[in-house]
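Teaching assistant here, posting this on the class forum so everyone can see the example we discussed in section. The complex has two components, and the goal was to see what a joint structure prediction looks like when all of them are supplied at once.
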Amino acid sequence: QSALTQPASVSGSPGQSITISCTATSSDVGSYNYVSWYQCHPGKAPKLMIYDVSNRPSGVSNRFSGSKSGNTASLTISGLQAEDEADYYCSSYTISSTLVFGGGTKLTVL
Amino acid sequence: EVQLVESGGGLVQPGRSLRLSCAASGFTFDDYAMDWVRQAPGKGLEWVSGISWNSGSTGYADSVKGRFTISRDNAKNSLYLQMNSLRAEDTALYYCAKDIGRIYRNPRMDVWGKGTTVTVSS
């Protein structure tokens, strides 16, 4: 069982906003502001969408935003588009100097 | 164009060894930390190992510690993963990834290769 818990699936209609949560179940990850989010389309390499909780790499749409409250980080996608349909993974650095990923969330655009 | 190309995957028997390579191009390789991440069939992402820009620090997931060794050759713009004592549960697509920073700490991977498949089976 991952130290980061994500919902298995979320869905939304085009134009809507959705939020994917990522909850640290272990104290060795929850205390850091080192949460990243990755987008994975089938058959393609993962893409970094958010790092250090809320920072967006160059080239990532500002429709993607990140936040954190306590032990739960969140990825919000606003103005949902068909191409946003993908698997999303959160990750966090740990006090053991390792990186853990959440179990992943499948986003379906209805 | 920034590019990472993995190679060295294949079918290997349990207990044997395999060495993965990753050729980097389009960026200053020795300015960045690098990582290996894997994805087992039908499963999620799993970070495997990371190394700082100058090989000064490395890290490993508990699942591979003591069996896998990460290394890099900055003169050849290449990253490696030596995998020993392979197990069936090591079967996965292995990605090479570039970090956004120099130091192996808090891996944040902004460039990924397409991966190389490792299958451990008798």
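For the discussion questions: Chain A has a mean pLDDT of 93. Residues 27-30 of chain A form the longest helix (4 residues). Think about how each of these relates to the inputs above.
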